[in-house]
Predict the structure.
Amino acid sequence: MAVCILLLLYIKHELSYDSFNKNADHIYRLCQPQHPFQAPQTAKLLADNIPEIKDYARILVRGKTIVQYKDKRYLEKENAFALADASLFRIFSFKFKQGDPEKALQPPFTVVISENLARKYFGNENPIAQVIKLDNELNVTITGVMEDMPQNSHFRYELIASLSDADKIFGSESMNNWGWQNFLVYFLMQDRFSQPAFEKKCSELIAKHKNSGPDSPAVKYSIQNLRDIHLYSSHLEGDIQPQNSITYVLIFSAIGFLILLIACFNYVNLLTANATTRAKEIAIRKVAGASRQDLARQFIGESFVVLFIALILALVFVAICLPVFNTLSGKILSFKTLMQIGTILEILAMLIITGFLAGSYPAFFLAKYQPAKTLKAGATTGRSKYNFRKILVGAQFTIVIVLICSALFMFNQIHFLQNKKLGFDRGYTLLAEVDHPADDVEKYNALKQALLKESVVKSVSMASRVPSDSLNNLGTLLPAGQTKPILLPFVHVHYDYFETLGITAAQGRLFSSKFKTDADEAIIINEAAVKKLELKGNPIGQSVACSWPKSNRKVIGVVDDFHFESLYEKIQPTVFVIDYRQCYQLMIKVNPSNAQNTINKLAAICKNFYPDGVFEFHFLDTKLESLYQKDKITFQLMGYFTILAIFIACMGLFGLGLIMMKSRTKEIGVRKVLGASIMQILILFAKDFTRWVLIANIIAWPVAFYAMNKWLQNFAYRIDMTIWPFLLSGLSALVIALLTVGYQGVKAALANPIESLRYE
C-alpha cells in the first residue's frame, strides 16, 4: 500500500500538468509533425485569418543568459529566459506579486522576473522599475514580479522579456524569415470548434504564404491541448523542456496495481492454506445459527481491519520514504497532497477495492465448510478441485516474470542509448556559451590561439548547434538545375568544427582556413542531405543557392550520417556552412586530465578575452546522457519496484511453503522411513511450484513482448527483441521459487522422521 500511495502521488502530479490555468481547456499549442516550433510571423497570420482564434501568444526560447544588475553578473541556466508577447499573461494564469499582468510586457524593452530572481538580485529592494542588462547588450526595465511558476507547468521561466520590440532586437528580416522556426505558438480558442477543420485551415494558410512552391511536400500542422503537452509530446523533438510520456504513467500505474495484486494473492493464499486453524470455529458458529452471509461478512470485516492497520503503517512508510522517492523520480512531491479531498477519496477507493479483492474469496471459501464434517476428528478441510491457491501462485509469477523481462529490456535499451557509436568522438569535449563572438572575429581568433597554446587543448571551434541540440534552424538549398528550394536544417560553424568532433570527410574535404573562400562559397552536407537534394553523380563541386546566409555556394565535402540529435529521432539531412554571426557555442577538445583544473584554467583564459562573460563549461557526453534522463529514471524506479515485487512474492511463497510443510509433516516422515532421500523430498516439494512457474512463463512472455515492443517503438534506434531476456526472466523466476520453497523442503527433509511421525 505504501508503494501504491507513492505511485498515486507521482501519477496525480503527472496528470495535473498545466491544470492550474483557468483557460486550460481552451489553450492549444501549434505543432509541426516533428517539433512544436514555428516561424515568427505564423501566429499573427493565422489569428488574422481564422476566426476560431480568440487570442495568441508567442514564446521565443533562449539559451543560458547573463543577467547584470549594477556591478553584479549572474549566469542563468538554460530555459530560464524567454521573450514573449504581452498576451502571454492574459492567456495563462500565472500569479503576480507586483505589477499588472495585462500591461507588464506591453512596453518595449521590459521584462518580468520571478519571485526567486527578485530575492536573488535585489534582496529587500523593490525590483519594479529597476534596469537590468541581458547578455551584455540589452537593457530592460522590470515591470512585474510573478510568483515562481508551478512545478506542474510544462514550461518554467524566471525571466520573460517583451517581444514587442522584436524587430529592433532581431531585425525585420529575421522576423519575416519562414526558416527561423524557434517560436512556440499558443492559441486561446473559441469554446466550440472543429479541430480537424482548424488544422486543415492552418496547413493551407501557411503553405500559401510560405511561397514554398506547388511541388513542396505539404506540412500538416496540428494543435495540442495544453493539458496534453506534458504527457503526449514524446513524438516531438527538442521540446521547450523535457516532457514525460503517458507510457511511463501507465507503466507506474500497472506496477502499483500489480504489486498490490501480489500482496492480495499472498493474503488469499495464506488465509485459505491455513484455514484448518479456524475450521472448528466456523463449524461451531454455523451450529449456533450463523449463516454463510454472516460468516462472509465477518471475514471481509477482518480483512478491512487488517487493511486499515496496513494503511496507517503505509502512511508512516510514505512519510519516511518520500524524500528518497523524490530524489529517484526527480519530482518534488509533498505529503500534504495526501490531505486533499480527492486524494483521500482515491485512497479510500483503493482500500475498499483491495478489501473486497483480498477478503471475498477467503470469506466465501471458509464460510462454505460443513459443520458435521469439520467437527469429525481427523476430517480434512477439503481441497479445491482446481487448487485455487496454486493458480494464484502462477498469477504471482506471471507478474514477476513480466516485470523482470521488462526491466531487462529497459536496461539493455538504456545501455544501448548510452554506448551506441554516434558517428563522432564525444569524449573530452568541453562546451560553453560565448556572448556574441561574431561581433569581433579577430578577438575570437585570438582566443582560439591562446587556448591552443595550452598543452591540454587539442582543438577549438564554434557553432550554432552541437550534437544533442535540436536541428530546428531551417533554411533552403536550391541545387543548380532544379526549380524547387528544399528546406533543410542548418548548422552554422567555424573552422575545425568537424576536427573537434573527430569527423572526417567521406567525400571531398572539410572546411579549412587555408581556403579563404570557404567562409563565403563553401558548403558541407551529410549523406542524408545528398539523397534529399537528389544530387546526381559526384556531389563534390555542385552548385547550390543557399538561403542562410543568402549566397551561392559549392559542395566541398560530404560527411557520413552521424547522430546529431537523440536516438529517439532519425538522422536528418543536414547542411553545414561557415557563418560567424550565428555561432555562440564554444567547443574545446581536451586531453584526459584533471577536469576541474582544466575547466578553471580555460575559463580564466576566456575571461581575459570576454571580461563581461560568465563561462560555465560542461562536457558533451554529459549533455548527451541528459537526453535519456527520463528513461534512466524510469528504469531505476522500475528496477526497485521489480525487486520489491519479487520480495513480496517470496514472502508469500515462504509462508505458503511453511504451511504446506506442516500439513505434510507425517507424509514426509513416512517417506523418509521408507527410504526417500533428501533430494527426492525436495523434488516432491518443488514439482508443483515448478509446473506453475512454467505455465506462468507461457502467459508472461507474450505480455512482456507486447509491452516492450510498444515501448521500444518510441526510439528511432533500438535494440532487437532477442529471446535471452525472456529465458533469463523465466529462469530467474524458477530459481526464486525453488530457493524460497526449497528452504522449507530442506528443513522438512532434515527433520528427525520419529518426530515427524509423532506430529499431530
